[in-house]
Amino acid sequence: MLVQAREASRELALLDREVIDRVLIQVAERAEVRWSDLVEANRLDLERMDPANPLYDRLMLDRQRIEGIAADIRNVALLESPVGETICESVLSNGLEIEKVRVPFGVVGVIYEARPNVSFDVFSLCFKTCNAAVLKGGSDAEYSNRKIVEIIREVMAENGVPEGVVTLLPSDRSSAAEMMSAVGLVDVIIPRGSSSLINFVRDNSKVPVIETGAGICHTYFDMDGDAAKGADIVYNAKTRRVSVCNALDCLVIHRGRLADLPHICRPLARKNVIIYADESSFAALEGHYPAGLLERAGDRSFGTEFMDYKMAVKTVDSLAGAVEHVTRYTSMHSEAIITENPETARLYSRMVDAACVYINASTAFTDGAQFGMGAEIGISTQKLHARGPMGIVELTSYKYIVTGNGQVRE
Q: What is the DSSP secondary-structure string of 50-110?
């Protein structure tokens, strides 16, 4: 299967861009037409998962979500492909012409858990950039992923595209081990999922890995923060979708603004958010937040990606204290500050080391589609090659094309 993917990647390099865009549009249309088939396959997966599991929401497909996926695929089709773009060019004194040109990786492998939408996202972004996609989904989404790839391959066959362009590996762990050892067949692996999955792939893969980290996200409410903005931002970042990596996990608040904490947290009670508060914030919230939803923070309350209606609160005495706490627990994904002081905002954004730093905005915006990329293949938390939401540009490398007229080196 991996050999077929490698061979298909070479054919992709010669595929006309009009064909690529036509296939993407048709896949989007076919997903909408076949939405009931997708939902039925997804139902078989959902039946095997406890609805109380935070991953249940990630796993679920319905007609509205499928329409959203189709819209993202159409957005990708409309994007200008970066493949073949000249990044820079120069002419040496000896007359050699040097061009630095964007090229596909070749074969991109993605190992992911219970998120069937990833199958569509990875295919569309890889196909747009002439990369063959090798998908290794988790067993939790096995039926959904099979149906998705079946639909994609139907459209590709109708357009004469080799089926090896998208490959779904068996959902067992041995296929992940095969992919991670496939040096020369797979060019890069992108893991998407829990920190344990990401760490396992990073530590065991012989193939280069682009690390997409777990999202342990903080929002710091500064001494000069606006309480109304704070309440809206915290509520959105925490409750919009609790199972995604950009959801808020910890509110850090300046001690001088503890009197505003009940107002900031009050909307969270509508979603039954459990708050794990340190001693100072617990005292500020006690009697102002439902007792059944308020608990004292423990050792594991901080540095935890909850993926649930749960949030920690940490009290600090200064901007330096906030930066120290965030630095200790961040996964370098998305961090935010709420302040009306431009200098404080500038210092926070410079000192906090994360792929995305927000000033007076929700961390929920860390998303390729929201950043105008059409869709994303993941949020990179590393610093080599790509960082933050990864769209089509991040799925390319480059080569130097050197043109001469008989020059030889002395």
A: -TTSTHHHHH---HHHHHHHHHHHHHHHHSPP-TT-EEEEEE-TTS-EEEEEEEE-SEEEE
Read off the DSSP letter of residue 310: E
Contact 396, 103 (CB under 8 A): yes
Ranges assigned E (strand) in 206-350: 217-221, 248-254, 274-277, 294-296, 310-316, 334-338
Q: How far is CA 341 from CA 25, 115, 324, 337, 360, in A?
A: 46, 39, 19, 10, 11
E strands of 242-328, at which residues?
248-254, 274-277, 294-296, 310-316
- Given the structure tokens 């200064």, which residue do they identify? 318
Q: For strand 188-192 and strand 217-221, is the pairing parallel, antiparallel, or unpaired?
A: unpaired
| Bridging pattern class, strands 132-136 and 107-112 | parallel
Amino acid identity of residue 313, one-letter, is V
HSE, side-chain direction, 13 A CA sphere, residue 167: 27
Q: Which of 75, 71, 83 is nearest to 21 (CA)?
A: 75
Give the global pTM. Answer: 0.85
Question: 3-class SS at 37?
Answer: helix
What is the rounded CA–CA span in Å between residue 21 and residue 27? Answer: 10
Q: Mean pLDDT of successive 10-residue segments in the chain (410 residues)? A: 96 93 98 97 96 86 95 93 96 97 97 90 95 95 97 97 96 92 97 86 95 89 98 98 93 98 98 98 98 95 94 98 97 96 98 97 92 84 91 95 96
- With tokens 């904490």, the residue in question is 261
